[in-house]
Every structure is written in structure tokens, then in C-alpha cells.
Write a structure and sequence with these properties.
The chain has 327 residues and is of the alpha/beta class. It is built from 11 helices and 7 strands. Bound molecules: thiamine diphosphate.
Amino acid sequence: MPSIKRTKFKLSPEELLEMLYWLKLIRAFDERLSILVRQGKIRSGVYSGIGQEAIVVGTCFSLRKEDYICPLHRDLGTFLMKGVDPGVMMAQMFARTNGLSKGRDSALHSGVPELGIFGNTSMLGSNLPVAAGLALTFKMEKRDDVVLAYFGEGASNTGDFHEGLNFAGVQQLPVVFICENNFYAYSVPFERAMAIEDVADRAESYGFEGVAVNGNDVLAVYQATQGAIQRARAGAGPTLIECKTYRWHGHSEHDKPSYRTEEELAMWRSRDPLPIFTTFLEDRSVLTPEKLQDVESRVKQAIDAAVAFAEAGAEPDPADAVTDLYA
Ligand SMILES: Cc1ncc(C[n+]2csc(CCOP(=O)(O)OP(=O)(O)O)c2C)c(N)n1
């Protein structure tokens, strides 16, 4: 099995433009959400992923419906890429009955089994042993589907992280562990929580490959993920991909990130994944001004329609609060 660092996966011009569409859609979704929070329209906590879109797009692009994702609080874009309609996702954030959980949860814990989305819990890191369990099911059923499990660098200091990765390594499970290293766990900077430079190094102690990539380069993330997926489907076991990135907003929309400097933010904003990829496409004549306009108008239409759909949704009826609950 080739190393994940050496394999190259080709994308057609149409696929590259589709990648740009997703990057812009996910950015626009989070930007609109941020405005809606300030208008008092959103019931859920909002953990903006602005700045981290290349990880979502690079990892989810070309996934099969049968593959599973175990997303993080910052990964609303993964729901969209896995097939959740933007209107339904927006209604989820409005806590309306036309959202995923019909207005009955705080929005970030929904799963959609028919689309291969496993709902996350609030205990960070706890999705990793669950992801290993899902991957064990795939292995036992002799399916060549894979699980993508997302976590922050902060979560990689929990016991669940180590248990999940160890089990996946021992059992050679088809799971790709994706670390979104944005250098802050809430207000705690990376160097105050870890004595190593790369989270990717932790994979070695569980017997599989770990690789650190530029998480703001959608193609670097895509190449690494595709290599890891190919290996997982072929029975070669797990991979850890650490994507170095930065979140532009606070931990959540209610957090004013006074623990970091304006200079640091400005430096990372200059590494914005969107213009980096746009320039790449223009340089190769894949993107023309007309095509760019087409992508941007599709995005605007999708977001406007999503907000209209959410606003038209009914408020949940208190009588339904315990519907579908079981003990
Ligand atoms: C086990 C656990 N400890 C603490 C928290 C409180 N908490 C919520 S988000 C967060 C920061 C998480 O940082 P990271 O894992 O790096 O992900 P990021 O939010 O940066 O994407 C913390 C400490 C939690 N939800 N779960």
C-alpha cells in the first residue's frame, strides 16, 4: 500500500469548480448565521467555522453516501456536503419544526443515519471511540465504506482520543481521524496544552500513519484524505490527518477572543483558503470571471432560499417536547 503522502488524485475542471462552490457556500452559510445570531433569530449556540472551510471540503469531497462522518460543533458544512439541504440545516439553527430535529435540541447533536451522519455529543473526544465502533461494524459486515471522525487539537488531550485511536489501530479499522488544529481550545493556546508540535505524531504510538497538512489548502487536505480513504477501503487500517488552520471568530459567537492578538488574526486571514484556491483556479484558466459569477450567484440563491425556508418553519409545540424520546 503506497504512503498517503505519495499518491495523487486527479480532479476535473468541473470538480474543481464544484469544490469552489462548496467552499463559498459553507463560508456564506456561517457568515449569514453570524448575522442572524446578532439579530436574535438563532436558538442554537453557534461555533463558527469561518477560516476552516478547506478542511470540510477537502475531506468530504467525493465521499460516498454510505460512508459515515462524525462531525464536530464547528462542522455544519459537513452536513451540507453529506447531503443535508441548506434550508433544513438553517431551520435546525432556528430550532424550527422543519429542521433536522424538529426544534427539539440545541442544534448541534443531530445525526442523519440515511446520509451517513452520526450525531455528536457535547463531550469532546467522545465521538472517537464511537467512530472506531462504527468502523468495526463496517469491517465485520465486510463493507468497504469508511468513517471520517473529526476532532479539535484540544480533544486530542482527552482519554477518549487515545482509547479510540488505540482500538482502531489494534483492529486495523477503516477510519480516518481528522484533527482540526486551530491552535486554540476555547481560550487555551496549543503550546499551553501540548508539549509536542504535531498532533499527527500521536498516530505512531497506535501503529498507524499520521500526517500534518496545511488545513487552509483544500487540495492538500483532499489529497491526504483520499490517500487515507483508499487505504482504509483496502483494509490497511486507520490514518490520522492533522489539518493546521485557524478559526477567525471566537470559540463561539458569544465569545470575544481577547486571548489572541489582532496581528495573529491578520496573519491567518492572509492565508484565507478561499482566495488561495480561487487564484489557483484562475492561474490554470479553470476559473473565468463568468464562472466565478455563476458560482457566486448559485451560493447567494442557496443561502437566501435557506433563510426563507427556515423563517417559514413553524415553532415547535411544547406538547411535542418528548416525542421520539426513549429511555
Ligand atoms: C470533554 C470536554 N471537556 C471540556 C469541554 C468544554 N469545551 C467545549 S468546546 C472546548 C474547546 C475545544 O477545543 P478543540 O477540541 O480544540 O476544538 P475547537 O473548538 O477548537 O474546534 C471545550 C474545552 C467539553 N465540551 N468536553
